[in-house]
């Protein structure tokens, strides 16, 4: 039986899943990663601890198998900055995509036209936690760190380097913000616009599509796998989830209701409105000529976790509370922008902040929870509209494990949502790419066939259509306030 081991290195959790050729999960394991929230909006991770989680989960699933795997397929979190030396060891703690230390710099770039210039060239907006902003910040405040580094990359390619010895980067990771999607090469003028031309050597050349690496001696010893085992490094988690969920046709999209709200739509056209709002991402995929228009909003289950802590409830209580309120949340409306670093899609504003309006003594905590969940669903509609959704919509992530919240998403979006039965779609996508890369592709349609469809309710959809218009109006007013 053919088997591939997929590893998804998330921000707070690393998962390993072994898949057979029919897409069945044979073994799985997970291990938590530590996320350090520091002063000034800084968010960092210890690379050695993250590598340790990879070793833990790989060894755990390997112990459950009675045979070998054909390949190790890696995916994981994108953005941020993972600086390493020539041997793959960190020169400072990894800086997360959640990081907000470059917020003031990003605001200055918005005012002086840097973000718009980069967007015109690459189709990607920038936000405080993207590589360009963090590198520019370090170039001013920690230049000696950049001087010591040999490569400025991301989580997945950092792990690839440690396991294989290869300095590389997947084209999907490199897409934000310096890759021209039409040429799949760095746009040198975009790098210069961010003042990073003198740091150009830190950017690794993107690997060819479906590049296969080999597990080195040190990596084999760390993971307990055979030296020389084929290894693939990407795409990162957003496009990996799209592939694993079943996004195949132009116009199809995926909503990932995770820590953030990642919305993507597949397209074969690298043309975009260069004068539009500089936000979102234009991600290259493993298939040349195919792209994902990504709108990964900072809102998501992190906001639900905040609400649960504030209200003194468990996450398991969210579903019953949603059922205890009604569409419209008892008159409460909300803007869900709780991230310290603001918002990055479908607009970028480091000053974006949450609001709750319309509260009265008659409202309950069920109304508050529902208002927040409805506002996140409105944000999803905003993102998917900006990304150009026209086909089938798939969904994954912790948020859609709640039937009540999934129904809200379907009703707000006024369309059916297809939910894969296997929640580990990121690892699935990485495994599908790995199988194709080693020349023995799996049946992707067979893998995507196991799913559940949630239909929207026309009556609720009509109410939410009015609510969405009100949401956009409130957002316009709030953005004027934030700018002041």
UniProtKB/TrEMBL annotation:
Biological process per Gene Ontology, one example term: D-xylose metabolic process
Organism: Prauserella marina
Protein name: Erythritol kinase
Coiled coil feature spans: none
InterPro entries registered for this protein in UniProt: ATPase_NBD, Carb_kinase_FGGY, FGGY_C, FGGY_Carb_Kinase, FGGY_N
UniProt domain Carbohydrate kinase FGGY C-terminal: residue ranges: 301-436
Pfam families cross-referenced by the UniProt entry: FGGY_C, FGGY_N
Family (UniProt): Belongs to the FGGY kinase family.
A Gene Ontology molecular function term of the record: kinase activity
Keyword Hydrolase: no
């Amino acid at each position: 039986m053919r088997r591939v081991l997929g590893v998804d290195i998330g921000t707070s959790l690393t998962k390993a899943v072994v898949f057979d050729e029919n897409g069945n999960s044979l073994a799985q394991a997970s291990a938590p990663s530590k996320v350090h929230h520091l002063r000034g909006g800084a968010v960092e991770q210890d690379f050695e601890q993250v590598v340790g989680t990879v070793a833990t989960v790989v060894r755990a699933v390997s112990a459950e198998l009675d045979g070998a795997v054909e390949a190790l397929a890696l995916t994981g979190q994108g953005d941020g900055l993972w600086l390493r030396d020539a041997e793959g060891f960190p020169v400072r703690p990894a800086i997360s995509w959640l990081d907000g230390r470059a917020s003031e710099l990003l605001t200055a770039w918005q005012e002086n036209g840097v973000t718009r210039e980069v967007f015109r060239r690459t189709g990607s907006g920038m936000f405080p936690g993207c590589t360009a902003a963090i590198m520019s910040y370090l170039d001013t405040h920690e230049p000696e760190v950049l001087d010591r580094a040999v490569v400025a990359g991301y989580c997945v390619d950092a792990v690839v380097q440690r396991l294989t010895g290869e300095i590389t980067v997947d084209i999907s990771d490199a897409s934000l913000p310096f890759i021209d999607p039409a040429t799949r090469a760095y746009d040198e003028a975009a790098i210069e616009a961010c003042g990073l031309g003198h740091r150009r050597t830190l950017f690794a050349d993107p690997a060819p599509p479906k590049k296969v690496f080999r597990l080195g001696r040190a990596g084999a010893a760390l993971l307990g796998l055979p030296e020389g085992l084929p290894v693939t490094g990407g795409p990162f988690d957003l496009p990996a989830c799209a592939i694993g969920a079943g996004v195949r046709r132009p116009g199809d999209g995926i909503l990932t209701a995770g820590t953030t709200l990642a919305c993507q739509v597949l397209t074969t056209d690298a043309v975009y409105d260069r004068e539009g709002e500089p936000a979102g991402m234009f991600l290259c995929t493993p298939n040349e000529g195919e792209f994902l228009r990504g709108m990964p909003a900072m809102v998501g289950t992190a906001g639900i976790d905040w609400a649960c802590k504030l209200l003194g409830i468990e996450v398991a209580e969210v579903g019953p509370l949603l059922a205890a309120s009604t569409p419209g949340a008892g008159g409460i409306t909300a803007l869900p922008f709780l991230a310290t670093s603001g918002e990055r899609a479908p607009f970028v504003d480091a000053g974006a902040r949450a609001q709750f309006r319309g509260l009265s003594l008659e409202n309950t905590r069920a109304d508050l929870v529902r208002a927040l969940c409805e506002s996140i669903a409105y944000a999803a509609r905003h993102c998917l509209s900006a990304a150009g959704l026209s086909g089938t919509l798939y969904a994954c992530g912790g948020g859609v494990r709640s039937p009540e919240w999934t129904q809200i998403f379907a009703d707000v979006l006024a369309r059916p949502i297809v939910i894969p039965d296997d929640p580990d779609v990121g690892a699935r996508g990485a495994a599908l790419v790995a199988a194709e890369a080693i020349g023995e592709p799996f049946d992707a349609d067979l893998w995507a066939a196991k799913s559940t469809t949630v239909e929207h309710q026309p009556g609720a959809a009509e109410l939410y259509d009015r609510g969405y218009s009100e949401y956009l109006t409130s957002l316009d007013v709030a953005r004027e306030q934030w700018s002041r």
